[in-house]
Design brief:
By secondary structure, the protein is of the alpha/beta class. The protein is 43% helix and 18% strand. The chain folds into two domains: 198 residues, Spore Coat Polysaccharide Biosynthesis Protein SpsA, Chain A (Alpha-Beta Complex); 92 residues. The C terminus is likely disordered. Strand 6 and strand 7 form a beta hairpin. The protein is built from twelve helices and nine strands. The radius of gyration is 21 Å and the shape is globular.
């Protein structure tokens, strides 16, 4: 009887955590499945979706797609489930509403395989709206090597849909931390940066979707504030030499929250007060940053006033 050859695992495992993503999952799957590099498996963790997400996924008849359904438990646990199912040498994550350029995996794989000492390769990213239109250019970082300190002060990777990572490194650090309330991707990149080397593909290859004007984002930002402070406390506790710079690192978090508020929160008095609080804390923690960018102070104050006055309704005379 002839021997059955063992199945050769793919080089890359792509993991998508999906929860109630019926509006965007089709476009994300098309983005992944149209990659110029094809030796990958696509692991989709359906995180207890209550809409048509699963039925849309099932329309894709591609042998590379593997679907696992679980009760809702959050994106970080879903990513960890994806890591556990992955058989590839490398892993890349993409959220169920984000997009990649067709050459994203190919270019990142070339970069990481040309540098055996590198464990994480990232690209540049831009923000898109609910219609898939680019609304904001992301950072154009060229930082490589040991990037922990730079990454602690500025999450230049931009989103959780960005890097290609050696699975060995992800397994060694224990996956995503489910105790972190928000900023779980930043926490993971920092954890990896503590021990591993990064490299960059200096091209825009990731499109991170943000929907503006949501009334629920004020409560979401309060949760993000808690999560970002968790991330900061966790990583500074491991690097006592960085404690003197704690204010500068924390200031980055509050600048991020401030601009997230303007980008996502609908104009209202309560959101104006929220942005004013973020601005006040950011200035208190690192006034020099603002002094070097004094033009931003006027812009921030003007937007804050517009938010504070959004509730005013003038009756006809």
């Amino acid at each position: 009887m002839p021997e059955i050859s063992p199945k050769i695992p793919p080089r890359i495992s792509v993991v998508i955590p999906a929860y109630n993503a019926e509006k965007t999952i089709k476009f994300t799957l098309e983005s992944v499945l149209s990659q110029t590099y094809s030796d990958f498996e696509l692991i989709i963790i359906n995180d207890g979706s209550q809409d048509a997400t699963l039925s849309i996924i099932n329309q894709f008849k591609d042998r590379r797609v593997r679907v696992f359904s679980h009760e809702n438990s959050g994106p970080q646990k879903s990513r960890n489930r994806g890591i556990n199912q992955a058989t590839g040498e490398y892993i890349s994550f993409i959220d169920a509403d984000d997009l990649w350029t067709p050459d994203k995996l190919e270019q990142q794989l070339k970069r990481i395989e040309a540098n055996p000492e590198v464990s994480v390769v990232y690209s540049w990213s831009d923000e898109i709206n609910e219609h898939g239109m680019v609304t904001r250019s992301g950072q154009r970082s060229t930082l490589e090597g040991k990037v922990f300190e730079a990454l602690l002060k500025n999450n230049f990777l931009g989103s959780g849909s960005n890097p290609l990572i050696r699975k060995q490194a992800l397994s060694a650090v224990g996956g995503f931390d489910p105790s972190i309330l928000a900023g779980q991707d930043w926490d993971m990149w920092l954890t990896l940066a503590s021990d591993y080397t990064f490299a960059v593909v200096p091209q825009v290859q990731v499109f991170y979707r943000k929907s503006a004007g949501s009334k629920s984002w004020s409560s979401n930002l309060s949760r993000q504030e808690q999560g970002l402070r968790q991330v900061m406390a966790k990583h500074l506790s491991r690097r006592s030499d960085l404690l003197p710079s704690r204010r500068a690192y924390l200031a980055f978090c509050y600048r991020y929250l401030l601009f997230e508020c303007f980008g996502k929160c609908a104009p209202s008095f309560s959101n104006g007060m929220l942005s004013l609080r973020f601005f006040g804390v950011a200035v208190y923690l690192e006034p020099g940053w603002w002094m070097q960018r004094s033009h931003l102070i006027g812009i921030v104050l003007a937007k804050t006033i517009r938010y504070l006055l959004a509730f005013v309704r003038f009756a006809p005379g």
